[in-house]
Amino acid sequence: MSPVSPVRETDASGATTTREARVISGLVLRTRKGGLSVRVQGRTLAVTTAMVALLMVGMVVTLTSGDYELSVGEVLQAVVGNGSGGADFIVNTLRMPRLLTAMCVGAALAVSGAILQSLTGNALGSPDIIGFTNGSAVGALVVIIVLHGSMTQIAVGALIGGLATAVVMYLLMLGRGLQGFRLVVVGIGVSALLLAVNSYLITRATWQEALEAQAWLIGSLSNRGWPHANAILVAVAVLLPLALALSRRLSMVEMGDTTAMALGVGVARTRTALLVISVALAAFATAVTGPIWFIALAAPQLARKLTGASGPALLPAALMGALLLTASDLLAQRLFAPALLPVGTATGIIGGLYLIWLLVTESRKSRV
Question: Is the pLDDT of residue 287 over 70?
Fold first, then answer.
């Protein structure tokens, strides 16, 4: 455990707060000229390696098991293009795009949640709670019920809805700063309003439109093909490196605005950039699968507890999110077969129990 010492700081309003400054230990790797350095902690490395191993196991089980059992060799042959027609169809058309979609959506939601929790300093800071997910749902429902759009148009509508929600929240907080507790409170209010809008849209829909809308709102990986996988792969490939590049500044912002500014961090610009990245990750993920609840809430906290990291731990969070959603989808497919249980239902059940535990834990801490 790293040693902890109290640090007193004064914010812009003149209020004095006491924070814990953690002395971080670990191995530092630097380039020869010193232009790039990376701190590697043994516990974080061990946990990250274990999650990668578990994720690989999940991938193998997903690709080889099911109604049609395949060996590892048959899967590898299908992946490189030398498999039989049946194996090629099962692996490359049915299972692989669904698996990649689950991994990327889980990683995107987890990193989005990790950024928001770090920015707000609140365990409830996630796109599920703050309202970005419901904003994406509004955009999708408008396309389904009002515009009668295709699946591609529904995805675009969900993306626009999530980004529009972020703009509205920014305008509501304009001039007051993107401070943690305020962002959570405003987000909860906006989320409740958007949930009411979703309910209204469904009541105005036809029977068929309501069924389609409800199916999308549950959140599912069924019938996800390469267009879905490619879309979220591109989003993660672009946004995740940006988030990792800003992770050091995010760690400094966690230490408080005064300390971060003293270290040369543009706090307002950093908060805004990270918020945009977080919203974009959540919006793209929701656009591809529909709302997948509680991955963004639970994965960052589990990763942080396991690694013991003092910072946001974005990479472990991404791996944890990918692992949780892949495992949840695998269990939903195998345990409830032949019934088709949407993965959003599985994560909702597990996440609801986790949220109850989290609220009880936070309540006990506040009493102490």
Answer: yes
Distance CA 65, CA 337 (A): 12
Out of 59-63, 156-160, 193-197, least confident range: 156-160
Q: Helical H runs in 204-313? A: 207-218, 226-245, 247-254, 257-262, 267-289, 295-307
Helix axes 96-120 and 314-335, enclosed angle (nearest 10): 140
Task: Tokens for 135, please give them.
Answer: 């904003």
User: In whole angstroms, what is the distance from residue 122 CA to residue 114 CA?
Assistant: 10
Among residues 312, 320, 276, 258, the alpha carbon closest in space to that of 295 is found at 320
Residue 93 C-alpha from the chain's centroid? 25
Q: What distance in Å separates the CA atoms of residue 147 and residue 35, rounded to the nearest whole number?
A: 52
Burial 321-340 (b: 16+ CB within 10 A, else e): bbbbbbbbbbebbeeeeeee
For residues 362 and 356, give the distance between their C-alpha atoms in angstroms, rounded to a whole number: 10
Q: Which amino acid is at 367?
A: R
pTM of the full predicted structure? 0.83
Between helices 314-335 and 226-245, what is the axis angle to 10°?
A: 150
* pLDDT tens-digit readout, 305-336: 888 877 788 999 999 999 999 999 988 888 76
Q: What are the phi and psi torsion angles at 359 (to 5°)? A: -65, -40
Strands 4-10 and 37-40: unpaired
